[in-house]
Specification:
The complex is a heterodimer of chains A (about 270) and B (about 300). Chain A is mainly alpha-helical. Chain A is built from 11 helices and no strands. Chain B is globular. Classes of the chains: A mainly alpha (about 270), B mainly alpha (about 300).
Amino acid sequence: MTRSRIQWGVLDFVVVAFALIPVLWLVSLSLKTPATIADGGFIPTEWTFDNYVNVFTEGGFLRPLVNSIGIAGLATLIAIVLGTFAAYAIARLNFPGRSIMLGAALLVAMFPQVSLVTPLFNIERALGLFNTWPGLILPYVTFALPLTIYTMSTFFREIPWELEKAAKMDGASSFQAFRKVIVPLAAPGVVTAAVLAFIQSWNDFLFAISLTSSERSRTAPAAISYFTGSSQFEDPTGSVSAAAVIVTIPIVIFVLIFQRRIVSGLTAGAVKG
Amino acid sequence: MTGSGDVKAAERRLGLWLCAPAAIFMVLVAGWPILYSIWLSFNRYDLRFPQDQQWVGLENYLTVLTNEFWWTAFGITVLITVVSVSIELVLGMGLAIVMHRTLVGRGLIRTVVLIPYGIVTVVAAFGWFYAWTPGTGWLAALLPDGSAPLTEQWPAILIIIGAEVWKTTPFMALLLLAGLALVPDELSRAAAMDGAGRWKRFVKITLPLMRPAIAVALLFRTLDAFRIYDNIFILTKGAQNTGSVSIITYTNLVSGLNLGIGSTMSVLIFITVAIIAFIFVKVFKTGTPGTEGRR
């Protein structure tokens, strides 16, 4: 028994190292001083927080960060509202378009986004949406919808909806029955879908560099790729790695809080196919 | 018209109304642009000479399909897709088994593997970029002096594949884990009693039962890998013939501003993805998740 525990412990360690070493490397790089940043060591020999200060003061990283939070947040919100409607209908109602809707969602999920880059670029320029928040929110909502519809409709199917009827028989009004019984049961599915949708929007790079042209709507991943260092003689490594770590913090927080939900959400649609 | 007929009609109406907003979004932002790009692909349309727009039939397709850059990018994309998805399948299966069976720290493992899944691809790519940059990088330091792997085609492609594998193996593993959880322990135990070894049990019992999960995981990852863009953009920008079809489509848009050719590439990528999906469905005979088997 102890021998197999040790074996599993070693395997666990390999997995943890595999997952974390590349992230720790970025953290290490972001804490190095300009003099030691090109020393090639995994652990900094001189430590500094200057990179984190510089990325905001000279790198102008605040605006892209605000853009990222706003655009990903709004896209998630819209995708969740629309996705909840559709998922409820798919899980609960009998209507002719149901399998078409699921098929369409799957089609969009598998869509090669790059196929949209050229046409969207042209359409958005014509409509004045190019380089605006809505210009990015539109594609982000579209690509988050399949995810939210699948996750939530799987989840809604498991809810014992008779409870709602039972609550009404016990004298609760329709609204009370919905708010006190159904909302708490449905909330975990909605949260799962929201976390996955946010991560996906937060992650996007292709639309972010194709459909923006200035800091007005450029998101953090796109802004990082444009970093050139605070002066033309300076290497951007420190700024890039500091910005990279900052962008990773929300992901780490989400993963720590919602680990179970993310795992169940990602696996929900996969098994039953 | 009976009362229950009215109820059914009302239910149908409500269902359609509730799906309408999401459907409209998907049609307007994904459906309409792809139709528009099919139309554009039959036109000469260069933003530098917009007044020169003109129907040219299949000329753009001829231009792209006889262009060696397109075929190089296509080959590179297929290569990266096949190699990285194969490695991910093996590693992901191992990871899924560790997550499923480990006696210690199961929660820790499941949390930690979500970091590569969740991290922004561009961020991870910069991590690899600096790690392999001579002088700066801890991985480059392990190589012989004077080597600059990101500036040579094959080493660069290996690094791109490595970055892709690191980022997406956890996703593959989670999909496989869901399939693994459906394999009843008793079957495996009964086989063990009959004297079947570990490997034999895995190949004869676990793998066949996991077939649907493996098919879905492979399909999702193959289509996703074929779209590869972020990692290449950061690691090599497509230099030294390391560009994928997504990279050259983007480059054509930004530096060429040739919407006719760009749309042609878009349509060709779309067709390729549809063919891949079709082959998967035929080979694995899996239904699309949700449309069958669910209810």
